[in-house]
UniProtKB/TrEMBL annotation:
Its cofactor is Zn(2+). This is Peptidase M14 domain-containing protein. Transmembrane segments: none annotated. Residues 30-306 form the Peptidase M14 domain. It comes from Pseudoxanthomonas sacheonensis.
Length: 306
């Protein structure tokens, strides 16, 4: 349903210019600490894993170092797997799920797979619990040449030497109630379009690549996560967030064409997780555990089908 709901920045029907972006940015408040929540945890992992600073985000008075956690026993003959979290900074379990996976489970893959884990792609947005970077750009629509997002460009530079060797990429996300209350209305206002209300699914789901579908892989991940939290059902139209459900808990997007993080490699196995943290049936601990279960199931599937 198209609505005329007023967003407090800009003029309805007109895309934002620099003044509107500056107004929006001035309203964003730092609400948590990347240093405390992420960097200190990464520092504690240095004794067991290699930690690589792959870039720095320079936003004037604020500079954010970007880190990847990698297998210490890296062997060129082994398959490579990429885990990313926090591409949308407000999606909390993607960040903490990635870190919890490294701490509790990554060691059991030693000698079997080379791991690259990037737990927080977008630290400015993590601190402000937002979807965009300071330029009002969505990093998860910006994984392409000449990217307008520093976050996306830095990750692409990190991955470039291994792009053809990575066999698995799992990108950890959430779908939240604020997608409809804030982020999609803001997107419509930014682009000068009418806001069309959507429906938030209650439960976990996956996004497969329509240009490289791997249905057996997706169902293996769904089966593992179902032991931790509930899987989102299709709505009355047989859809989840406006896309047809192609299997229980699975929809498809064109990763590369849309500039999505999950399309940044040429991996055979790719997926985007979507946890629902606002469900009355899920706790923050369950949401983190669902992300961890998804990563482990994805890795196990890749290794079993190598």
């Amino acid at each position: 349903m198209t609505t005329d709901a007023f967003y407090p920045i800009g003029t309805p029907g007109q895309p934002w210019g620099p003044a509107e972006v500056a107004d929006w940015r001035s309203r964003q408040v730092r609400r948590r600490s990347y240093d405390v929540d992420v960097l200190r945890v990464v520092e504690d992992l240095r004794s067991r894993f290699d930690v690589v600073e792959y870039g720095r985000l320079d936003y004037g008075a604020e500079v954010y170092p970007l880190f990847a956690i990698e297998s210490r026993d890296w062997k060129d003959e082994l398959p490579c797997a990429l885990v990313t979290g926090g591409v949308h900074g407000y999606e909390t379990s993607g960040v903490h799920g990635a870190l919890q996976f490294v701490d509790a489970h990554a060691s059991r893959y030693a000698g079997r797979v080379n791991l690259i884990v990037v737990p927080c792609v977008s630290p400015w947005a993590y601190e402000r619990i937002h979807r965009w970077n300071p330029e009002a750009v969505d990093p998860n629509r910006s994984f392409r040449a000449d990217s307008p997002a520093q976050e996306s460009a830095a990750l692409m530079r990190l991955i470039a030497p291994l792009r053809e060797r990575i066999g698995l990429h799992i990108d950890l996300h959430e779908t939240t109630d604020t997608d409809e209350s804030e982020f999609r209305p803001a997107l419509a206002a930014r682009d000068g379009k009418a806001y069309v209300a959507g429906e938030i699914p209650d439960g976990f789901y996956l996004v497969d690549d329509s240009e490289n579908p791997q249905p057996e892989f997706q169902q293996a991940v769904i089966a593992a996560v179902a032991k931790v939290t509930h899987i989102a059902p299709a709505d009355s139209d047989g859809q989840i967030i406006g896309s047809p459900v192609v299997a229980p808990g699975v929809i498809n997007y064109a990763f590369k064409r849309l500039g999505l993080c999950a399309g940044v490699t040429n991996a055979r196995y790719t997926t985007t997780t979507e946890v629902y943290p606002d469900s009355p049936r899920a706790t923050p601990e369950q949401c983190n555990a669902a992300q961890v279960a998804a990563v482990c199931a994805a890795l196990d599937f890749m290794l079993a089908h190598a």
